[in-house]
Amino acid sequence: MVAHLAFRLDVPDARVGGIVTAGGAVEAYIQATAARLAADGCEVRTEDWHGTPVLVGYRADFRLRWMATKLHLLTVVAPAAAVTQGDLETFTNTAFDYAQAQKGQFRGLQSGVAVFPGLVGTHVDPAALAWAGRRQLVRFGSVARPVAVDVTAGAVGCFRGTAALGFVYSGHLRRKLDAYFPQAAADAPTARP
Length: 193
Prior knowledge:
alpha/beta
């Protein structure tokens, strides 16, 4: 069901003399994301995707103003030492497939799926940040808004705009992105390589 992921945290996760190392900052950001998801009422768990621990948060919301639909929101977050645009595209497609397999059986029938596939790393290519912020991806009855987090630079790239397809969910998705993925520097100590 889940394709092989080549994303591994190759940077040691440790504290050295009270200084948070690069791997420690990635882990701290992911743990803080898990806490934010739980505080928002999400079911939170960690899954093993081919040796990589992946954080998965899930919640469902129903609103009459969404034309009486239920939106299944999955947040899927993984560590990566370095993130390229290609890595983020691959992870986004894998998370998209996963979300549709988990909750997308009845999408389009008063039900939709949204997924926030996030890669958190110490070195994120500016092209990956730009690609994440450009637009949401759309499949039948579902959308994905990729997220790239660079804990070293304190940067978060994701689309927070209003899209033509799925526009009724845009405000909700923007609020959830703001809650789950604040700027890295504001939430976790800055990494020192």
